[in-house]
Amino acid sequence: MLVADGLHKSYPNRRVLCGVSLSVSPGEVLGIVGPNGSGKTTLLRLLTGEELPDKGEVRLDGRPLCDWSQREKARCLAVLPQEGLPSVPFTVREVVEMGRHPHQGFWPWAGERDRHVVESVLLETGLQADRDRHVDQLSGGERQRVAIAKAMAQDPRVLILDEPTTFLDIAHQLGMLDWIRSWSQREGIAVLIVLHDLNLAALYCDRILMLKEGTCFAQGSPSEILTPDRIRKVYGVQPVLTRHPVTHAPQVLLQPGAGDSSATKPAESFTL
Ligand SMILES: Nc1ncnc2c1ncn2[C@@H]1O[C@H](COP(=O)(O)OP(=O)(O)OP(=O)(O)O)[C@@H](O)[C@H]1O
Fold it and tell me: What are the start and end residues of every segment in region (Disordered) (predicted)?
């Protein structure tokens, strides 16, 4: 459904992506993981057409992404950027309704189907009680849920999310990821999700693509990808790997003081 072949991207004096290829199929959740600055957000920008690759191609349903009009793309592909929703002076219901615009005519008047979709999304995301609240009065986590609800109302076939759990507490992280996964399986939506939390990636992704300094370091099932050796080489930490007692997914336990700064360049330096 969404395929990228050999993507390269550089900015002045900085090579950010080098030959990254991936594909995500209907009903599948592909996780993108990697350290700060490894190129995850840049990769998503190329996959959504927000930026063009220097080399390589992105195809949606077999057609080069650059051949899709903005409107065609918006009917098929929903994107949740890292910064989430801006603090806009609209109500929750109005923002969720905006997700329907790509499906409406020149004048964005809501029809029966639009109203039905918006009401079911508000119900499913637990936002019914907040429907008349203004988005600019919500907390970061509440705004993130509205952003997801808007993407869902868009009724996409591909959903791209950049770190959607950042502002959410653990209950809402699980609630949101449970919801995204069951929605993906039920409706056959291809999901591509950037996650920093390797444990959540192991629990929720069918496959993981691990980036290191702009290259695809490894790609495969969570059990194939999340090994102590790979995590040490990519993140420069020495983790302990265990199995989740219920799902048997790999889980990463961190050890204080077990960083290995020789394995990877430090993303930032800290001075105390
Ligand atoms: N417009 C730009 N101009 C120049 N450099 C850029 C630009 N956008 C990104 N970069 C650089 O490209 C590299 C990768 O950035 P990107 O945001 O894709 O990383 P990331 O893996 O998403 O990082 P994080 O986990 O911190 O969000 C970084 O070194 C960043 O400074």
Answer: 252-272
H helices present in 125-263, as ranges: 140-153, 170-187, 198-204, 222-225, 228-235
Q: Beta strand pairing status for 29-33 and 207-212?
A: parallel
For position 249, which CATH number holds?
A: 3.40.50.300
Write the residue with the smallest CA distance to atom 16 of ligand 1.
Answer: 39
- Residue of the CA atom closest to atom 30 of ligand 1: 37
CA nearest ligand 1 atom 17, residue = 41
3-class secondary structure for 224-253? HHCCHHHHHHHHCECCEEEECCCCCCEEEE
Q: What are phi and psi of 101, to 5 degrees?
A: -55, -40
Whether 69 has a pLDDT exceeding 60, the answer reads: yes
**For residue 225, how far is its CA from the centre of ligand 1 (angstroms)?**
23
Domain that holds residue 32: 2-87+155-253
Quick: pLDDT tens for 211-239: 999 999 999 999 999 999 999 999 999 89
Please report the ipTM that was assigned to this predicted complex. 0.97
The predicted structure's pLDDT at residue 271: 33
In the chain, how many domains are there?
A: 1
In this structure, is residue 44 part of a structural domain?
A: yes
Flag whether 139 is in a domain.
no
pTM above 0.80, yes or no: yes
